[in-house]
């Protein structure tokens, strides 16, 4: 992409976008335009939309991390515009429909009869020769009949000029809009889109009746994040209820849940060291990591409680023995998860940034260390009252 962009940047006026077949279809489904993200300006006047789109594009190019900025232009089609002057038509007694018929028949042509060839029928259309309609001046010299038998040039009852017209008009929900596409690279999508939205509100002033709307990956990311904000708490609540049913008390269930922040420390640290952002795939990785962390904590706490009940040992000694005996399975679980996913985590091939399990690899390290060193201490401290009562008994 960098090499292609270097070559294309030498050609002035070229707007380009980097995509792939399936990605292109997905992007168009998300934002209705062929771009990862877009800013849409809704309004009625195409010239105003074009002017505001140019302002937005200039603002986007000055935003860090925003690349591949382009306007889906609507104006630029050479258009012959014949605007009838009703006051002048009334002065000469000419009907507006007479002017429109002259333009239609002389320039565009219209069928006047049918031609029969064997069993086929064709409409025969006529119009003036090329020499009478090759320029606005010659078109303005065409004569229009008046009711009193006189003939006046078309230019005396209408303004004939060559202008830029629309070659494509984008519409959504019955309203015209113009779209400005952009992509985000070398920066997290959330902060980049937030900065873009802030600049739109502060720097771009729209006339009354016009409005902005953003579409694309950013909106999809926000929707997914909103779902994760519900899914993750429900997942933790479900885990807590299962832990409560397994241990039979509130205290041990909460202690095991401490492994969740232990795991999150390593996952966040791995993302920071790798220069990655907290993406949706990273969020799903955290969910998988929480399962590993909870499993390690449950096995350790259940084993310590089993030693205390079976051998009637002091809680501190049982914790030390439990960690010593539990060391091998915990490390084996960590090595299985960590080393098994390490090649994928260190991959730098195309597309790997969305699939690297950095969260799991980093979280497994801190989970293993803190489960063996910190969790037994917290468990012993939280159950010190129970330990004293048992010793006194």
Characterise this structure.
The termini are far apart. Strands 1, 2, 9, 10 and 11 form a 5-stranded antiparallel beta sheet that branches. The longest helix has 32 residues, at 280-311. This protein has helices at residues 2-8, 21-31, 46-61, 86-92, 96-108, 136-140, 189-203, 217-247, 250-257, 259-274, 280-311, 315-345, 358-373, 375-382, 384-392; strands at 37-42, 66-71, 75-84, 110-117, 120-126, 143-145, 151-153, 158-166, 170-172, 175-184, 211-216. Helix 10 packs across helix 13 (358-373) and helix 12 runs antiparallel to helix 14 (375-382). By secondary structure, the protein is α+β, with helices and mostly antiparallel strands. A hairpin with a 2-residue loop joins strand 4 and strand 5 (120-126).
Could you write a compact summary of the structure shown?
This protein has 393 residues and is α+β, with helices and mostly antiparallel strands.
Major β-sheet profile: 5 strands, antiparallel
Distance between the termini: 73 Å
Name the shape in a single word.
rod-shaped
Low-confidence parts lasting 5 or more residues at pLDDT below 50?
none
Question: What count of helical segments does DSSP give?
Answer: 15
Beta-strand share of residues? 15-25%
Mean pLDDT: 81
Query: Which H/E pattern describes the elements?
Result: HHEHEEHHEEHEEEEEHEHHHHHHHH
Gyration radius from CA atoms, angstroms: 36 Å
- Record field, number of beta strands: 11
Helical percentage: 55-70%
Structural class designation:
alpha+beta
